[in-house]
Design brief:
about 150 residues, 6 helices
Amino acid sequence: MNQSVRALEYEAMLLWRHRDMRQPSARGDDRRLDRSAYILLSRLELAGPMSIGQLSEAFGVASSTVHRQSAAMLCAGLVERIPDPEGGIARKFRLTEEGRRRLDEERGRNVRGLERVLAGWSEEDTAAFAAYLRRFNAGMERLSAQGPPPA
């Protein structure tokens, strides 16, 4: 697998998710993760256990939004609540084995879709695109952290 495509997968997920990139499920049960679950699970995979407050801050959304999303993921068995490993009083979420499995499946579908979209691109072009997309997403995050421009 092209390493640049794998690195590009998460960046592309933040920007868009087009139906033509996704392959139908072989089982036909469409157990795909929605975008918010995918992004939250990816963050937990990268950062380790996080509280609702930490997730809320990381994504710049209200804690009520994260609470709703995390409750759905808890019910689906994708995350579990654990005591803070650092001894804090807030409970944290971490991936379950099912959550990790579903995240890996979804990531595999995304990578295969990106490989189809980028077929014929050189390694250099793919790497440049990944770098520009990372830069674009970082700029979007920086602007959202600053809030709306003054009127």
